[in-house]
Each structure stands twice: as C-alpha cells, then as structure tokens.
Amino acid sequence: MAIEQTLSIIKPDAVGRNQIGDIYSRFENNGLRIVAAKMMQLSRKQAEQFYAEHKERPFFGELVEFMTSGPVMVQVLEGENAVAKNRELMGATMPKNAEPGTIRRDLAYDPDNPDSADNAVHGSDGVDSAKAEIAQFFAADEICPR
Ligand code: RTP
Ligand code: MG
C-alpha cells in the first residue's frame, strides 16, 4: 500500500475544548504519524484561500468566521493510505451524520445544537489536494518524514 501524507487541521472548536490530545491519540493509534505540526491563528485571508473551492457556497462566510474564531492546530499526517484513513477517522462532514467512533461524532456533536457544521477537524480529500494544502502551511524542511 502507498505511504501518503495528508494535511489535518484541528479546528477552533476542538482546540477550545482541549481535544488536541484525544485527536492525536486517534491518529497515532490508527497508523498515522504526525510528521509536522504548528499551532496558529488563521487570518481571514488564509482561511479564504484554504477553502477557496467553497467561495460561492452559502456557508462560506460562516466557515471563514468559524475557522478564524480561535487558534487551530495544523499537522501533516503520514502513513499507509493516509488521505482516506484520516477521512475515515474524521467521519461525515456534519457531526450529526457521522458514525459513532469517529472524531466528528464523538468530539463535535452537540445535542443542544444538532445541526451545527462546527466539526472539529479538516482532512485533505485527495492526494493532489493534500500536496497543495501541505505546501500552503509547511516548508519542506519543516516536515520530518519517518
Ligand atoms: P473539510 O474540508 O473541513 O475537511 O470538510 P469536508 O471535506 O468534510 O466538507 P466540505 O464540503 O469540504 O466543507 C468544508 C467545511 O465547510 C463547513 N460546512 N458547512 N453549513 C453547511 O452546510 C456546511 N457545509 C460544510 C464544514 O465546517 C466543512 O467541514
Ligand atoms: Mg473538504
């Protein structure tokens, strides 16, 4: 199987709930290595660029507000089929639709706000987008493949 890298972001809601360690454990316990990481406050411009594919969508403004509402933890994950593996660990986009056992269901679903799209994590959706997203946040010498 192919060893891949993927970009992961722990979003402001999960950072605010002190869930970085829980999420890192899920990565490490499922064959994904953290090979680069940084905490940062995204600027509006960085968030808009990162989610540019969604700029015509009705939720774009809300998404940019959310992604800039507090610090995020950005990491490169490496492992066999890392792109798909990370998406599997994350679960469906909306926490209410994500399966129990996934990050989004276990850590982001709020029964008092069941339709919220605040969903704890981002993961690249393909090998090509992973390469582009990694390059947006990390210089080559900031990544430590193992
Ligand atoms: P992500 O890019 O963050 O990993 O999420 P995803 O692939 O599962 O979902 P995507 O369609 O790329 O949507 C990006 C993010 O936009 C927010 N969203 N809000 N209110 C809504 O209907 C809605 N739909 C999507 C979510 O934060 C989603 O992760
Ligand atoms: Mg996406």
| Global structural class | alpha+beta
Q: Which value, in Å, is the CA radius of gyration?
A: 14 Å
Q: Could you tell me which ligands this complex binds, including any ions or cofactors?
A: ribavirin triphosphate, magnesium ion
Question: What is the molecular shape?
Answer: globular
> What is the number of strand segments?
4
Binding site for ATP: 11, 59, 87, 93, 104, 119
Catalytic activity: a ribonucleoside 5'-diphosphate + ATP = a ribonucleoside 5'-triphosphate + ADP; a 2'-deoxyribonucleoside 5'-diphosphate + ATP = a 2'-deoxyribonucleoside 5'-triphosphate + ADP
Organism: Methylohalomonas lacus
Cofactor: Mg(2+)
Note down, in words, how this protein is organized.
With 146 residues, this protein is an alpha+beta fold. The protein has helices at 12-16, 20-28, 44-50, 60-67, 82-90, 103-108, 127-137, and strands at 3-10, 33-40, 72-80, 121-123. A four-stranded antiparallel β-sheet has the order 2-3-1-4. The longest helix is centred in the C-terminal third of the chain and has 11 residues, at 127-137. The protein is globular. The chain starts with a strand and ends in a 9-residue tail after the last helix. The model has no long low-confidence stretch (mean pLDDT 98). The chain binds ribavirin triphosphate (RTP) and magnesium ion (MG). Ribavirin triphosphate binds next to strand 4.
